[in-house]
Amino acid sequence: MSGRGGKATLIAVAVVLVWLVIGGVAGPYAGRLSEVATNDNAAFLPTDAEATRAQDLAGEFVDRQTIPALVVYERPAGITDADRQRVNADAARFAQIPGVVTPLPPPIPSKDGQALQVVVPVDDAEGEEIGEIVEQLRDITGGDRDGLTVDVSGPAGLLADLIKVFSAIDGPLLLVTLVVVLVILLIVYRSPVLWIFPLLAAGMSYALASVFVYLLADADVVKLNGQAQGILTVLVFGAGTDYALLLIARYREELHRHDRPWQAMKTAWKGAAPAIIASGGTVIVSLLCLLLSSLNSNRALGPVAAIGIAATLLVMLTFLPALLVLGGRWAFWPRQPRADQADPRAEHGIWARIAGFVARHARPVWLSTAVVLALLTLGLTQLGATTLGQSDLFTQRTDSVDGQDVISRHYPAGTGSPATIFTTEQTARQVAQVAKDVPGIADVRPLTAGPQTGPPEENAAPKVVDGRVQLEATLTDPPDSDGAERTIRELRVAVHQVPDADAVVGGFTAINVDTSDAAKRDQNVIIPVVLVVIAVILALLLRALLAPLLLIATVLLSFAATLGLCALLFRHVFDFPGVDSAFPLFAFVFLVALGIDYNIFLMSRVREESVKRGTRAGVLSGLAVTGGVITSAGIVLAATFSALAVLPLVVLVELGTAVAIGVLIDTIIVRSLLVPALAYDIGPKIWWPGRMSRANGEREARGAG
């Protein structure tokens, strides 16, 4: 035995050394993901939408496509001559910034005489550099002075503020996530040593995932944006710690049964690995279903997050076991497990009592918990999915938000970000007249030939490209508002009805409209596919059909209850105006994929125990030995996703809150009470049509007899 033990120790040392070398190579890439992230507008466009076609047509009318920065000056007492001189001087300096497309149009005065606006076209090809160009604009203006307020807004200003947020993801989010995981591990293990192993393994997982994501994004195989980057961080640490908790809990059990740590790990690995692999595989496949999305932002998240989970699985099933074997029993100090052949249920007194309660009141327990969750789903009426406006994207005020408010006070709110209409030269006048008659349209003018040094003249000759004309329609509502989106929908209906016009409507607001529509389409396509995939994996793992269907039903109920509770919190506690149109799909993929993890952890152990003891006894034993680790895992995952709240973006705060609440509902209510009580009440039939449903049914019938 000593020879085997020595060989096992050498293998563990070799595995650890190999991983440390890999970590040394991969580690630096974790801090370089921002270098290959793309946060420009193209990263979030629908690939096949009217707004995308319009953007392609717009490229034919200009030498360079631009994104406007709107520099707005406001003096409530009235703009002075000195203010005008300052604005003209600033505009001259704006024109000298590399990336700014000249000549600039002259400043636009407001009708009330209280504001001046300078439209600064920025070359769209600058990509991430647009953020730096906007910062230069802000440096030139010098901010507020002597009662004159200055803000840089518009699509370029908004994009710059988003880039600034996403570029700061690496440090703060990673630090907060590490601290959260560390604190919870110390509480769970009550050991000054053991927390090191899962945290080190999670860090290795993040480094390995980062190097693959970096290389693939750099080669343009996958698209990485700041949103996907932030979710990757919390997902790897959260899911990685979950897998570590499950393996360590099983390892601790086996240390009571085996003299040598390597023997205990061998048995623990065989017992825990199938559940961990099935869990990780379910999450990976669910995330890859996002590739069916028509939105680039969704398709970017799918493979990036799936790479993170795959790297986590590999590390947690190789590096972590090797560390634990080398750590031996002393890693659990001061509560070191002894080889005393103790029943693992003896260490889980509180969960044994909960299991007893479930056994005595199975039907009332699952009925009452199902009713509570069903009542929470009533909050869905408050959800109000929409496209968040510019002022609603951030949890705090930004320069672009302040600037949009100023523009809304003094100009038609859509000034500087018009809707674009492309139509045939022959129908241009008719289309323009039809567009003017649409409520919410302030003005419609053609794009004219020659340098655009000011607003196009209403009767000027339009620029014609391949028989097409571009019209610019100024909206009365802010371009990111619900009112503007309604106007775009009505505008499209109106111009599409003009015979032979072949009209195409695009622009900033049209992109929001098409993004929202694509998000709804994605929900209808992806959610059923994810459910089918999960059902197949559960059926293969549990070798049954009834159990997977019931488990999916509980997950869907938990998901709906979570969204209902979140809707109430977002509206009445956080005072958010609504949720982004992509939120329900993201919440579904993460909550269902991660929620099914705990079903897998519980029911795979229940099945294992049912083979030995019978179904009802197996349910109680499985609940007793996994209740603590599943609850701990849920708390870790909830806490890591809540770390997204440190980012000042409403959509990520909402997603982090939803996943945190949903995971806690899953672990505390669904997995601890609803599922065990339901399985206990149904009995052996839960495994229908598998052989175990008949074998356990006969065993329990004999026991009852």
UniProtKB/TrEMBL annotation:
Its main location: membrane. The chain crosses the membrane at residues 171-189, 196-217, 229-251, 272-293, 305-326, 365-385, 525-542, 549-570, 582-602, 623-652. One of its GO terms (cellular component) is plasma membrane. InterPro entries: MMPL_dom, Mycobact_MmpL, SSD. Gene3D superfamilies: Multidrug efflux transporter AcrB transmembrane domain. It is found in: Cell membrane. Belongs to the resistance-nodulation-cell division (RND) (TC 2.A.6) family. MmpL subfamily. This is SSD domain-containing protein. It comes from Micromonospora inaquosa. The lineage of its organism: Bacteria, Bacillati, Actinomycetota, Actinomycetes, Micromonosporales.
